[in-house]
Amino acid sequence: EPAHLAGIFPPGNAKSFLPSLPSHLATEFLSHLNSNKSNKSTTMTDGPHLRVLKWLSDAVTTFRTSPLPALGVEIHMNIIESIFLPQNLPINNDDEEARTRLIASWWSSTTTPLERSTWAVLDVHHYHAWSPECQGAVDGPPRGNYTCADATARQATLERCTAWAGKYRRVVDEECGTGGGASAKLASAEFSASTHHLVRHACADESTLRRSYEMQLERAEENDVEMFWWSYKMPFGGAFRAAWSFRQLMFEMGVWGEPDESLFDCGEHVPLSDEPTDDFVYGK
Question: What 3-state DSSP class applies to 200?
């Protein structure tokens, strides 16, 4: 997730860490991104995000000129929505769609239709846990949009929030086109069943976690978006495990026979016979 959260800290902010491209490079890159665009395409805006997009474009070029595409290897290009400053978004009543349109516009200029349908996979991570509009909480509103035990409110929120997969597919197809009937390969290679990023507020009941997991997968499958879970196992994840560890969730759902637990608690580690000690020196 290159430059994750850069859009929260604008230039001049003490925590800002993403400088803009030198002006001559920004002008040249913007010209490339916005040339040969149809009237329906979104115009790329100026801003610090161009530094990230230029770096990722160069990575695609390097991959393209390597033997890997011919060997059937894919490049999964992750780009995080938080690189964009609010003032750099195109005018749109939906900021989430505005960010997605900028990403898709860049992807359209960076790859060809054939590449997008074969080896170039666009990957945008997506979590309900960090979205105020999608969060559920044990203590309910205003901490979350619903209380974990309120199945009706939970269903309404999940219906609204899992529609993201359809928006993702629609926007990319509109910006990149579907020439020859071949749509771009899309992925969301990080997701979880968590309803809140603060574990003390997050729903932990099996019913809510199951619905969160299943509905996200159902909407993604309907829109041909490949999904990849956050982590297969988190043996030291404590209370986070139920919603973030795939093995623990499968145990909670009755699919897996054993919980995702470590063999040892912290402080009870039993060293292996050949395990390096604190005085270990490499090569000796």
Answer: coil
pTM for the model stands at 0.88
Name the nearest CA neighbour of 131 among 83, 208, 192.
192
279 has pLDDT over 50: no
Dihedral (C-alpha) 44, 45, 46, 49: value to the nearest 10 degrees? Answer: -70
pLDDT digits (tens, 9 = 90+) for 148-207: 999 999 999 999 999 999 999 999 999 999 876 789 999 999 999 999 999 999 999 999
For strand 136-137 and strand 225-229, is the pairing parallel, antiparallel, or unpaired?
unpaired
- Tell me how far the alpha carbon of residue 113 is from its chain's centroid: 22
Give me the chain's average pLDDT, please.
91
Least-confidence region, from 5-9, 81-85, 263-267: 263-267
Whole-angstrom Cα distance, residue 136 to residue 284?
A: 54
Q: pLDDT tens, 70-83?
A: 999 999 999 999 99
C-alpha of 263 from chain center = 31
Per DSSP, what are the bridge partners of residue 226?
187
Strand partners, 76: 121
Phi, psi of 112 (to 5 degrees): -95, 160
Distance CA 200, CA 139 (A): 10
Question: Looking at this protein, which amino acid is placed at residue 61?
Answer: T
Strands (E), 15-119: 75-78
Q: Is the peptide bond before 2 cis (omega within 30 degrees of 0)?
A: no
Question: Helix (H, G, I), strand (E, B), or coil: what is residue 38?
Answer: coil
Q: What is the CA radius of gyration of the chain?
A: 22
Give the tokens for residue 213: 């997991």
Looking at the chain, how many residues does it have?
284
Cα→Cα distances 122→10, 56, 76, 111, 253, Å: 26, 11, 6, 10, 31
